[in-house]
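Researcher: Good morning. I'm working through a list of sequences from a screen, and I'd like to move beyond sequence-only analysis. For each chain I'm collecting a predicted structure so we can compare shapes side by side. This is the next one on the list. No need for commentary yet; just the structure.
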Amino acid sequence: MNRYLLTLGTSLALAFAIAPARADVIDGEWCTVDGRHHIIIQGPTILTPGGVRSEGSYTRHTFSYVVPAAETPAGETVFMTLVNEETVHARTGPDMASASQSPTVVWQRCRRPVS
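Model: Good morning. Structure tokens for this chain:
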């Protein structure tokens, strides 16, 4: 019986150790709901929808960056907030007060295709 419990306990511990962790952080790969655009946030670095690597202002639950000249709307700031582990809301404007009046763009964690 003890050997069975030890094997079961070890198996469960191993299963939890190799399961993918979804931390409550804004880091990761995000896609628009329609799947047309994606970004990657890694700490203070972002790979923008246009493929430009840029730096921004990062916290565990927020990220903001200035849209590069080659993208629309160039020079505006995008303010992103982690809503839950799977969803980010983004608003754009010259500052946070103006952005709060702009439409919300919903981003979701990108899903890997399953074959």
